[in-house]
Write a structure and sequence with these properties.
45% of the residues lie in helices and 23% in strands. It is α+β, with helices and mostly antiparallel strands and 185 residues long.
């Protein structure tokens, strides 16, 4: 009966930990950044609510067909994730990329300069972005702390339960042994 309660709890906890590792931990360790797809411009491969993890890339390594995340305007935080449909050069020799959303008929209006590129898509996790869109950065941090605190509290509770169980078991054995000695006397 206890397993019927513990199995779903452990499944949810392990799932949450796995999502945190894949969505936050691995990107941080690898120097990548997770982004949420907010619009339908990249459907069907990257529908709204998909979490895309982009790794920094040398602009020389970006080719046609790559999905890149870039700043809409250089130096500003707003980003777009679209596919590269053409690579060209300015007269000064700088790389310039033409991008387009997979669901869009026309390429994006302005070409993307190399300095605007934040990274090339490394992997994507469907639906996970929907959860992150619900919370701002502060709320996500609080949620992470809450999940971590909950895991630590559960670990402490499990440890105390095990230690108290052993202590009670020793007491029962001691009482049983004392009763047997008393009965023999």
């Amino acid at each position: 009966m206890r397993w019927l309660v513990l199995l779903p709890i452990w499944t949810i906890l392990l799932g949450a930990v796995a999502l945190l590792v894949v969505g936050v931990g691995i990107p941080r360790v690898a120097g990548a950044t997770p982004y949420d797809i907010l619009t339908s411009s990249m459907e069907p491969d990257l529908p709204p609510g998909t979490l895309v993890v982009s790794r920094p890339v040398d602009p020389q390594e970006v080719g046609i067909g790559d999905v890149i995340t870039y700043q809409l305007h250089s130096g500003e935080p707003e980003v777009i994730t679209h596919r590269v449909v053409a690579v060209s050069f300015t007269t000064g020799g700088e790389y310039v990329f033409t991008t387009r959303g997979d669901a869009n008929d026309l390429p994006d209006e302005a070409p993307v300069r190399a300095v605007q590129i934040r990274g090339r898509s490394w992997y994507a996790i469907p639906y996970v972005g929907r959860v992150t869109v619900l919370f701002d950065a502060h709320d996500r941090q609080l949620l992470s702390w809450g999940i971590g605190g909950g895991l630590l509290a559960y670990a402490a509770w499990t440890l105390m339960d095990a230690l108290l169980g052993r202590r009670n078991q020793r007491r029962r054995r001691h009482r049983s042994a004392t009763a047997q000695v008393g009965a023999q006397a």
